[in-house]
Design brief:
The chain has 256 residues and is mainly alpha-helical. Helices cover 71% and strands 3% of the residues.
């Protein structure tokens, strides 16, 4: 391999690892967002499910590893250090295997994950009090912005302890459909209806979540495929550079 070609590979690999370092920082940021966010659907699951918490720690760990790999990959590429290039290749291979394994597990465990999510949300609805808890505020925000009510439908709220034991026609204020007549438009808590026909959204939030996933499925899949292609490219470049370094070292050995 010519010296010019080696130089191109070296600096291209450096730029690649710089991007990989930035990508790792984004993963760490996303993991921290999942762990500390209080204004999205994730926070509702996070407070009730250890799975989401563990997933956030895994994201932070993978992101930190990616940042470390990007750093050592940059050093190995610029200074042509074979051990760092070999370590970089091995780590990329392990991460790629882990990603494929995680994708397969999520695909085959999707029904179990869906059941666990349904259990968490229905438990939240049953125990809902409207006393400004973080998870309750988040669920109110989700229902209001997605214009949905309950998990599978507004009927889920009939299992709420306060609503079940009340003689009034109570309903969650965040389910209030503004197209219906009335003035009670509070963000959270329980509201009272003067009639038995509650002025709430009739669509369950599971439909809104599934619709969002379907609309963004192409983007999510594209990102996953793009990451895998970038990782494969990094593995190929690191092996080419490592091979060229070995060849250069061999050429420097005196011939008798």
């Amino acid at each position: 391999m010519g010296n010019g070609c080696v130089t191109v590979i070296k600096y291209f690999l450096f730029l690649f690892n710089l991007l990989f370092f930035i990508f790792g920082a984004l993963i760490v940021s996303f993991g921290l967002w999942v762990l500390f966010d209080t204004q999205s659907f994730i926070s509702v699951l996070q407070e009730s499910s250890e799975t989401v918490k563990v997933a956030s720690y895994i994201l932070i760990g993978v992101g930190s590893l990616s940042m470390a790999m990007g750093f050592f990959g940059c050093i190995g590429a610029i200074y042509e250090i074979r051990c760092l290039l070999g370590l970089y290749f091995t780590c990329l291979l392990l991460i790629l295997i882990a990603q494929v394994t995680a994708g397969v597990l999520i695909y085959f465990q999707r029904d179990r994950l869906k059941y666990e999510m349904s259990t968490i949300i229905k438990g939240l609805i049953i125990s809902y009090t409207g006393q400004n808890k973080t998870t309750e505020q988040t669920w109110d925000y989700i229902q209001k912005t997605m214009e949905c009510c309950g998990w599978t439908g507004p009927g889920n709220w009939s299992e709420n302890i306060l609503i079940k034991n009340s003689t009034q026609n109570l309903y969650p204020c965040s389910c209030r459909n503004s197209s219906h007549p009335g003035t009670d438009m509070r963000e959270g808590g329980l509201c009272e209806s003067l009639s038995e026909n509650l002025p709430v959204f009739q669509t369950g939030c599971i439909s809104s979540v599934e619709k969002w996933l379907l609309e963004n499925c192409g983007i999510i899949l594209g990102i996953c495929v793009g990451v895998a292609v970038v990782e494969l490219l990094g593995m190929i470049l690191s092996m080419c550079l490592c091979k060229s370094v070995v060849q250069q070292d061999y050429d420097k050995v005196p011939k008798y």
